[in-house]
Design a protein that fits this description.
It comes from Lactuca saligna (Willowleaf lettuce). Pfam families: SWIM. This is SWIM-type domain-containing protein. Keywords: Metal-binding, Zinc, Zinc-finger. By secondary structure, the protein is an alpha+beta fold. It contains 9 helices and 4 strands, in the order ααααααββββααα. Strands 1-2-3-4 form a 4-stranded antiparallel sheet. A hairpin with a 4-residue loop joins β3 and β4. α2 packs antiparallel against α3 and α6 crosses α8. The chain is elongated and about 110 Å long. The mean pLDDT is 87.
Length: 252
């Protein structure tokens, strides 16, 4: 089935439909061989605002009304970035999890039992799903708030969007409200107001569990390379008589 088949819009009415811009451009070149149409088409396809799209499409109309009519018949909303939908009301991580559930739901058979009630059958088990109450007998939907494979299968059975059934706590608006309040600025400690309360003291030092460190921790500016100390050229001195030529161990 092709992307432009009528059944796509009938079976998937709630999703954004797009066409391949490269194929549209190829068909445009087959009809209108001038290279200027190729350049202007990609400008119109990559335009990010509706105003920029209209400026380019107006140039095409001035050059050749037939080329303009051909592109308009292809529905610019499906091939120009100026009309693509942006953003999503669901947090990105939850949206990715819902997309995984959309793939997993293909392995289940859905039977309509009543209004918004379904029996979802797998290879070895079956579950009850109630879309109105947002419940599933596997209890995963009630626990995570964004659904399970059984609930998504029931939602897809009705040609609805599974993201519309995600709990409001995963909405981007709710996320922004949670971080809407700012952390008030604060002066340095020497400017804090004095109180009659006992000032807080630092915690008592205690020995941490495990083996204590025996090596000195080097500073970040110190060279961490290893060194070898050689005795060549160093004079040996006795620590008893302070004479040069022997040490304490070989002192006569």
């Amino acid at each position: 089935m092709l992307d432009q088949h009528k059944a796509v819009k009938e079976l998937l009415p709630y999703i954004e439909h797009r066409q391949c811009a490269r194929h549209i451009c190829q068909n445009l070149q087959n009809r209108f061989t001038s290279a200027i149409y190729h350049t202007l088409f990609w400008r119109a396809s990559k335009a990010t605002t509706e105003h920029a799209f209209k400026v380019v499409i107006k140039k095409i109309e001035t050059l050749n009304p037939d080329a303009h009519q051909y592109l308009m018949e292809k529905d610019p909303k499906t091939w120009s970035r100026a009309f693509f939908q942006t953003g999503n009301h669901i947090c990105p991580e939850i949206r990715d999890k819902v997309n995984l559930l959309k793939k997993a739901q293909r392995h289940y058979q859905v039977l309509l039992s009543g209004l918004n009630q379904f029996e979802v059958r797998g290879a070895t088990d079956a579950y009850e799903v109630d879309l109105e109450r947002k419940t599933c007998s596997c209890r995963l939907w009630q626990l995570n708030g964004y659904g399970c494979a059984h609930s998504v299968a029931s939602i897809s059975f009705l040609n609805r969007d599974a993201e519309a059934y995600v709990d409001n706590m995963f909405d981007t608006t709710t996320f922004r409200k949670a971080y809407n309040y700012i952390i008030a600025p604060m002066n340095s400690s020497d400017k804090w107001p004095e109180t009659n309360y006992t000032p807080p003291l630092p915690p008592i030092n205690r020995r941490m569990p495990g083996k204590s460190a025996t090596k000195r921790k080097k500073s970040t500016t110190e060279n961490t390379g290893t060194y070898r100390v050689f005795k060549a050229g160093k004079k040996i001195r006795c620590s008893i008589y302070m004479e040069i030529g022997h040490n304490k161990a070989t002192c006569p």
